[in-house]
Predict the structure.
Amino acid sequence: VLHWIANDGTETARFLDTAGLDDKVRPMVKGLLGASSITGPTAPLWVGAAEMTSAHDAAQCSYYDTCDLTSKLTAAALPITYKCDDGHTFLAQSLTDSALAEACKSVQGQDAYFHGMVRDSGPVADDRNTTIQIVVFASSREYRTYSGWIFGNSTDNGGEYLEGNP
């Protein structure tokens, strides 16, 4: 049921792109944002409606309080930053300190393990990746709610490796 409500809210907000409807739709969308929250059980509704304001009514972002939406979503959904070492940083939703330390230890051994297994001399030529940011959402629901809007990736999968500067 929550999925349908979130989808209905997103589709209602999509009408912000229709000339002549924006004056009627704006207060409805602001009401949806006010009745939901960027985190918690109503987050899919909030995130979907907020994204439509960003896509179709960006000039009015202060009215909706959705300016700099990607930064807002990242801060709300991934409040934990854990620098493992110079090459690995975790952004996480709800990992404990001990879980982060354990994940860090595991990640630190992966390069040597992989290159030993495939018996090569290291990264491929022209691999310019010197750091890796590892993003950990609390659940697949949270991943589906936030990742596409924060990183621009599809979320119909178990996770993705994204190159570049997300």
Observations:
- The first strand starts at residue 80 and ends at 85.
- Residues 2-68 form one domain.
- Strands lie at 80-85, 88-92, 132-136.
